[in-house]
Amino acid sequence: MKRKEFLRGLGLIGISSLAIPIINSCSKDDASDSSDTDSSSGSGSSSGDCSVSPSETAGPFPTITPSSLVKSNIVMDRTGVGFTIKITIKNTKANCAALKGAIVDIWHCDKDGYYSEYGGTSMQSVNYTSVHFLRGRQTTDDNGLVTFTSIFPGWYSGRATHIHVHIYNASGTSLLVTQIAFPEGSNSAVALVNASTANGYTKGLSGYTYNASDNVFSDSVANEMSTVTGSVSDGFVLTHTINVAS
Description:
Blueprint: H1 3-11, E1 82-91, E2 97-98, E3 103-107, E4 135-139, E5 145-151, E6 162-168, E7 174-181, H2 189-194, E8 227-231, E9 235-244
Parallel strand pairs: 1-9
Antiparallel strand pairs: 1-2, 1-5, 3-4, 3-6, 6-7, 8-9
């Protein structure tokens, strides 16, 4: 991870609020209706581009001991809209062939914008330091694929909806820390899920920071954009490709 990116991820923690569940990194909120021009599914990222995916900050809430969280179902006690995460890892040093045996860690916030393993501080008021929900590790199969069962992430101040990913080679050497962006717009999963009060998503999108104004995604969102399909009733499926040099 580049030092300037890490500092960028931490440098804006200071946004004051009494009602926002997490006060965290990145840019000012932007709820502009112009984001409604985005489609409900994305490019899938990197599928036609054999270059290394963008490196991003792990943020202030990385998994503390990821090797202890080898599992594909990362829901634990969290509730929300069903969500399947399918990530394919490809190797730029082999003409972007599928990378078998890569270790993939993911983590994301719950429907209310909270992370496990942290809390009780100004960054996150609710204390979840003793639990490990929505964090997991898997190893890629012959097709470079890992699959996780989760719930659709919520959002918090200053950030668009996102998933953190840390990829290692089979021997445990870090290859890339990156993030996954979500399509936005009036018919997107982000909009539909956040309108689903029946599933506990009570914040809506008032004060939401869109990808174009997100300080992580604003300069590289095309290469970090996922494809999301499905429905609130049946659950959503995210597919995404990440390229690493291994």
